[in-house]
Design brief:
Structural class: mainly beta
CATH superfamily: TolB, C-terminal domain
CATH topology: Neuraminidase
Radius of gyration: 18 Å
Mean pLDDT: 76
Distance between the termini: 35 Å
Amino acid sequence: MNKLFPRVFALASILVLASGCDAAVTVIPAPVGGGSLYGIHETNFVKIDPSTAEITILGPLPPEASPLGGEVLDNLHRRYVYSALDYDANEWRLISLDLDSGAVVANVLLPRNVSALAVEGVSGDIVFHYIPDETSDERAIGRIDPILGTLTQLSTYVPPWNYVNSADMIYDGAGTFYGVAPILDQAAVPTNVYTFGAATGVWAGAEIPVPGMHGLEFDPGLDLLVATSSVITEHVEVVTVDRSTLAVDHVAVLDAYAAAGADAYDPVTHRYFVVAGEGQPKYFADWYPGFRLYTVDIETGHVLGESPVIGTEYPIYGLRYAL
């Protein structure tokens, strides 16, 4: 197996987009002021045009470290940052790529078991969730300079629920993390939605009547959390949650079997990009030909477009949007 891809399933963020396929691509209205999607495909960092689904290779990934599913995009400093594992050295790494050239800007050491990367403010520091001791229930929040590698532990805490999907956590850039903790039986209601302070570790949580939430994003202009809800059904639902009241709005229903876990958000035009499979698979590999990129207007609930997709041995993942 290629060292760059230890997880063929790529559950955290799988995306397969059309590039040179025979089927016509539904044109998605271009965002105000432009904008592009970015991700990882095979051994390359790629750029994706959200209007045409055209894929452009920006550059190769460092071959010594395998991406692990934690990706974030720093619009201000024009960097795509992701966590990776160097198998030979048995080290977790934080790798920064230049958003325009694709060149490797930095490659620094991380603590182990990192997830939920987020950019904090104008500094460009990366705030993240990690497990400092695998033998303990304690979790921690850290901050790292992605260029220098300087690490600071902000807080520690013990999760209030038995199951917390720390990969589905987002940071509002002002001191608060938001996350979802679906119970193991995703067909049941509710989902736990929680917040905690990055500096304090103080938790607050509530139950909302939405099963199987994932693909969490944040719209600062509308002050909304955005996510998908998909239980084993024939449809994927896009929902928003008011972060002050936790009121749920059922925005749109996609004619798809299940969300694939790849998502990105454009806060200017309030467009939510989500990848979902169009048919029920017998095996995971059967999903690849059925994945489509859907674009949803969060304000109107309109599905603006969907792109035909094709399968490859290693799909695109780590989808992020840059203004």
